[in-house]
Write a structure and sequence with these properties.
295 residues; alpha/beta; Adenine-specific Methyltransferase, domain 2; 2 domains; 12 helices; 7 strands; 40% helix; binds S-adenosylmethionine
Amino acid sequence: MTAQAATVAVDFPVSRVPVVNVATVPQRSPLRYPGGKTWLIPHIREWLRHTGPEILIEPFAGGAIVSLTAVMENLVRSAVMVEIDRDVAAFWRSALESGATLREWIGQFDPTIESLQKITQEPPKSVAEHGFKTLVLNRTHRGGVLARGASFSKSGENGKGLRSRWYPETLAKRLAAIQEHSDRLSFVEGDGMKLLPIVLRGWGRDAAIFLDPPYTAAGGKRAGSRLYEHSSIDHAALFGMLADHDSNFLMTYDAAPKIIELVRRHGFSAAVLSMKNGHHNQLVELVITSEPLFA
Ligand SMILES: C[S@@+](CC[C@H](N)C(=O)[O-])C[C@H]1O[C@@H](n2cnc3c(N)ncnc32)[C@H](O)[C@@H]1O
């Protein structure tokens, strides 16, 4: 966040929905996600209760916290998660199709230098193996970063190194909950930018669309190119697609000048949320909707 962005963002109203302590929000995703959206859940609940959509679509799913929460809290009947990254996609496919197998492997796995070297080097022989590999690397890489060149946790993250984020029982419980709801969760491996216009034309306002695109503003909270393998999309085109349709969307972005300009150009509403990240840096996030919901 640059000083300039923080100043410009002040022009938008501060959201009336308070930032919650993330520890009070149930963590439902087995994946750790850089820039995860747990803090946003109170806004999501209010948005979905207010607009009452048939279905939720999440075109940039990542850890898919919003889809999982919406279905498990019965805020929507069903959700569709879309993700382009093949490793993350393999995880979601195996979580939905082979959850029991993943849970069994989680119980048997001990993250050591040797076991992690083995899983890193051996090509997976099935979607389930590929999904398990993604989960293991996500939980043992520093900060959950899966992009090429990411390093393993060493002494950091509470001093337990490789095991510091490997909680077999918790992970198995989260996977069991996903399996229980698998008839209401769908996963599509593909380009959210290509799927979005089809959804907008087909569903109109009956679909709620949650968008948390990869954003790479220099100095932003998510220095995207380091965090995600797929970190570049056409943000202006995304805003244009949403503006061209009568749509019910909620988007989050860093409060960067380029994004603020796009919000204004299309007459969208934005509310500002200010919070501290895990490193005690002050962050300014925008919650962008088609109509004013949080002002
Ligand atoms: C900011 S993250 C989403 C984090 C998610 N909201 C969470 O709480 O875990 C953006 C995700 O979009 C994915 N992505 C990037 N470009 C995409 C595209 N064109 N279509 C679908 N997914 C894409 C990235 O791989 C990444 O997983």
